[in-house]
Design brief:
With 249 residues, this protein is α+β, with helices and mostly antiparallel strands. The chain has helices at residues 3-15, 20-46, 106-117, 211-218, and strands at residues 84-91, 94-100, 128-130, 134-137, 173-176, 188-191, 203-209, 222-224, 230-233, 239-247.
Length: 249
């Protein structure tokens, strides 16, 4: 027996012992109750279940729209600067192995190691390429999965100070990109050619294997950016991962 028929029979029985005014009031209450019941049932059955283990109201981001990792301050020193570190940068164009100068620039190397171990660089692309100068990457806004359209202006959410620069900008050198003194974040560049740059960019390593990969990335076709510089790649070269290794000496 349906709920409507059941309540209607109750209504008929009650009406037989009540006055006309009360009959109308009772009818309105019954109809209102049936309407609410139908609404509740429909919404309850049509509400999607929340992800297992997730709180009520939790909405996971759409596929390919993961949140960019951000921190409010630079990482604390966690490396032993007396150890010999290398970073294997695995890209869609091949691999490069970089020796990190932890003893010379422990703050910068610690920052790079921290971000690499957080998988911060994974999926980001080399967004600025000038063949006879350098390739630049490390911007989380230049990740096709997370980009908000600010490619080239992103970072980890904090900035840290420069360290002494004692080396020259030789081919294979990896250094921090910045927007002025003491504005280091996550972006870096790798020199494709030895050039006498002013020592404004903290050098923290050098490619010891994979210069052929460096040259391959440097040969990526580019177009002119809004600033008039011919450096925007027309093809994506992505960082797949950066693996930090401690080498026994």
């Amino acid at each position: 027996m349906s709920a409507g028929i059941y309540y209607f029979k109750i209504y008929v029985k009650i009406c037989s012992i009540m006055g006309t005014a009360i009959k109308y009031v009772l009818l309105v209450l019954i109809l209102a109750g049936l309407g609410y019941g139908a609404y509740y049932y429909q919404n309850k059955t049509n509400t999607p279940a929340r992800p297992e283990g997730g709180p009520a109201g939790f909405n996971p981001p759409p596929a390919g729209q993961e949140k960019i990792m951000q921190w409010s301050e630079p990482p604390k020193i966690a490396i032993d600067a007396t150890q010999f570190f290398t970073a294997v940068i695995d890209t869609t164009a091949g691999k490069m192995t970089v020796q990190l100068f932890a003893k010379e620039n422990p703050i910068t190397v610690n920052n790079f190691v921290f971000l690499a171990r957080q998988d911060f660089y994974n999926g980001t692309r080399f967004h600025r390429i000038i063949k006879d100068f350098m390739i630049q990457g490390g911007d989380p806004e230049c990740n096709p999965s997370t980009s908000s359209g600010r490619c080239g202006a992103g970072g980890p959410g904090y900035k840290f100070n420069d360290e002494p620069i004692t080396r020259d900008y030789e081919r294979g050198t990896i250094a921090m990109a910045n927007s002025g003194p003491n504005t280091n974040g996550s972006q870096f560049f790798i020199m494709t050619k030895t050039l006498p740059l002013q020592k404004n960019y903290v050098i923290f390593g050098k490619v010891i294997e994979g210069l052929d990969t460096l040259d391959k990335i440097a040969a990526t076709p580019v177009t002119t950016n809004p600033m008039g510089e011919k450096s925007t790649p027309t093809e994506d070269v992505l960082i797949k991962s950066i693996r930090i290794e401690v080498v026994e000496r």
